[in-house]
Amino acid sequence: MSVVALTHLKGGVGKTTAAVNLAVLAARDGPTLLWDLDPQGAASFCFRVRPRTPVGAARLLRDDEAREDAIRGTDVPDLDLLPADFSNRKLDALLARSDARGRGLSRALQPLRESYRHVLLDGPPGISFLAESIFETSDLLLAPTPPTVLALRSLARLARHVAHRRGPPARLLPFLSMVDRRKDVHHRVVAWARAHGELVLRNDIPYASLIEAMGVQRAPLASFAAGSVPAQAFEALWREALARLREPAPDAARLADALDELLAGLDEVEAPAAAATPPRRAPAPAPTAGGREVEFKIALEGEPELAALLAALPAGAPEPQPPHEQLNHFFDTARGELRRAGLALRLREEAGRFVLTAKGAPAPGGKGVLTDRAEDEVALDGAWAFEVLGGLRSPLDVLAARLASGPTPLLAALRAAAGTRPLVRVGSFRNR
Hints:
Elements lengths: L1 E5 L8 H13 L4 E5 L5 H5 L10 H6 L1 H7 L1 E2 L5 E4 L8 H8 L5 H6 L8 E5 L6 H9 L2 E6 L3 H16 L7 E5 L7 H12 L13 H9 L3 H4 L4 H17 L6 H25 L13 E7 L5 H10 L14 E7 L4 H4 L3 E7 L2 E7 L10 E11 L1 H8 L5 H8 L6 H10 L5 E8 L1
Parallel strand pairs: 1-5, 1-6, 2-4, 2-5, 6-7
Antiparallel strand pairs: 3-4, 8-12, 9-10, 9-13, 10-11, 11-12
């Protein structure tokens, strides 16, 4: 049995949303238990389970039979929940009186090892006797951290504490949450995390309205937004976390030092700008008009021919930019009516920007080298993009709303081809 805990010194970093969504993914591997140790009971709320146990925190720790009776099933196959209880606020005092080494939780979990493949723990923020017990019993400590100065400072303090605590080294692995790559600081912290892949999980969780909607829906993403960008992000995160379970524990002291260096760099760059200019809300992407795309294909054999082509560019031509990783999602009806009509509808994410593109059928007479086709392209903010990906908005309705020139012939062709049939995501791929 593996024990995975969501922990952090700071509140509001995304621990509960991560615990809920990762528990659903863990249940695909086998029987899983999510123990809601936070007296607020947010994880229990997301599964529509009343945050109350019939026995209270004290008996849950010492009475195996009472603990077993308190476990509830969920609507997710193979996922059980041990609900929160307001008496969980007393766990620190109980553990302080009975177990100075913080092993009370380990003893409580021992009888569950034969019943579950994974146990996930969602505890309250802070360092306390309960936190020490979570550190003691967990095989992996996942620390969701928004790329903000306060959250990163709290993570550095947590890492330094983990590095100097007694007992075997804890496997502390932070990951970035609530990431909005349109913000310069977020973009730079993501780049830092990529460069420290041995200390930080490479996969991160975006800032998304769909994640916020979990509280409204009272359900994990898999129940109402399966296949969405944030749902895919949690899947990638869980696969990486499982792989890291088989590796040695990262050096928490090195993590703390690396975070201190990152924070010093952020202070040096951000302080003058903050003093000179008050913060401003980023403007919404401007609507974009329709147009035409002309694609010209050139066959090159190897890098020497590419270098010769670039050398032949006229003076003053813009320098080729380094490629960004792109994530492309294609939409069509379930029976492929757009494809059969020669039409295409794509949502692309690149460097934190979202672009919705519609393409018409190639103009007749093309020889395969020069392709001329109508194109409508609009920029979207993250909220609209995630609603399109989650099936909450039709990409055609979003395209119509964002086109500055109003409805275009291409939009009319797309609507005619789709008819009354809904558009669904039919494929996704990454490229560079």
